[in-house]
Design goal:
- This protein is of the alpha/beta class.
- It has 10 helices and 10 strands.
- It has helices at about 25-40, 55-65, 95-105, 135-145, 160-170, 180-190, 200-205, 215-235, 255-265, 270-285; strands at about 1-5, 45-50, 70, 75-80, 90, 110-115, 150-155, 170-175, 195, 240.
- The strands form 3 sheets. It has a 5-stranded parallel β-sheet with strand order 6-7-8-9-10, sandwiched between helices. The protein has a 3-stranded parallel β-sheet with strand order 1-2-3. Strands 4-5 form a two-stranded parallel sheet.
- Helix 3 runs parallel beside helix 4 (about 135-145), helix 4 (about 135-145) crosses helix 5 and helix 5 packs parallel to helix 6.
- The radius of gyration is 17 Å and the shape is globular.
- The structure holds zinc ion.
């Protein structure tokens, strides 16, 4: 069983997120095509990372009749004026966060997604931008989700970001670029699942000369190589690692992106059995 624990159904297909002029029928048709694409590739379960359109809820409805298992946070939360505007709703502070989370919960998300840091810089290697929330804000948001019976997926890069997510009670760490030994030990100890999303940089690293992403090829190679080493180390240490492709991101097409991620993880020494068992755990604690 192939389980992809990090995709964005609203990105990378028909510009659902870009919005203008997209009707409900267009979204339904687009999500139906997505279900077909995943089923043709033999992928049985998906966990969404959210987007501003909240189209994941449409895919979840459709998937009920298709046999595809689908979990969605509907929309992610990010810190106002920082990274994440295309993925969900901006939060000003803890109070605002709890209010908006309560509104979202009425729409029945399967779990909560919090964006704690930016993405890795394409111009300055290793830089990920400002942290969105303080430790106390992050803890309060995660606690509130847990008290509401929902697990929390945290987008975190850099040692500081990853450590804050871990010590605030995140259930899964998404991306985790720049992860250091302290973070890996903490993941081991807490049993937190790491979803390293190798595919975005790996696919840019091998893109063709005519790709618009060509200018990012060299820096992407560095990120990919560094991350591969950390994934190998984490796996040897016993960290729970799940497959998450970030499909919908540039050069990570739906369906094929999952198979790409699987290949990268197998190259790091993971096994399909291990990935399936962690994937099932991730999907289940989101239900
Ligand atoms: Zn993502």
């Amino acid at each position: 069983m192939i389980i992809d624990c990090h995709i964005h159904c609203g990105l990378g297909n028909l510009g659902v997120v870009k919005g203008s002029g997209i009707t409900h029928d267009d979204s339904v048709a687009s999500m139906k095509r997505l279900v077909d694409i995943y089923q043709v590739k033999g992928i049985q379960a998906l966990r969404d990372g959210g987007d501003i359109s909240g189209v994941g809820i449409i895919l979840r409805d459709i998937s009920k009749d298709s046999g595809l298992i689908y979990r969605t946070p509907i929309r992610a939360f990010y810190k106002k004026n920082l990274y994440g505007d295309f993925l969900g709703e901006p939060l000003e502070n803890t109070k605002d966060g709890i209010r908006k989370m309560n509104v979202l919960i009425k729409e029945s998300p399967d779990f909560i997604k919090i964006i704690l840091t930016g993405i890795m810089s394409f111009t300055e290697f290793g830089i990920t931008g400002t942290m969105g929330f303080t430790k106390s804000q992050c803890t309060s948001l995660i606690d509130h989700a847990h008290q509401s019976g929902l697990s929390v997926m945290v987008h975190a890069n850099s040692p500081e970001g990853i450590m804050m997510a871990l010590t605030s009670g995140a259930d899964t760490i998404e991306h985790g670029y720049g992860v250091d030994d302290d973070c890996l030990y903490a993941m081991c100890e807490s049993g937190t699942v790491w979803v390293p999303t190798l595919a975005p940089f790996a696919n840019i690293a091998k893109c063709s000369d005519d790709s618009p992403m060509k200018k990012f090829r060299n820096i992407s190679k560095r990120y990919f190589r560094q991350h591969q080493e950390q994934v190998k180390k984490a796996n040897a240490m016993g960290v729970n690692i799940a497959l998450g492709s970030d499909s919908g991101a540039p050069l990570v097409p739906h369906g094929q992106g999952t198979l790409d991620e699987l290949e990268y993880l197998l190259d790091c020494g993971l096994t399909e059995e291990k990935l399936e068992s962690i994937g099932k755990r991730v999907i289940d604690f989101n239900s």
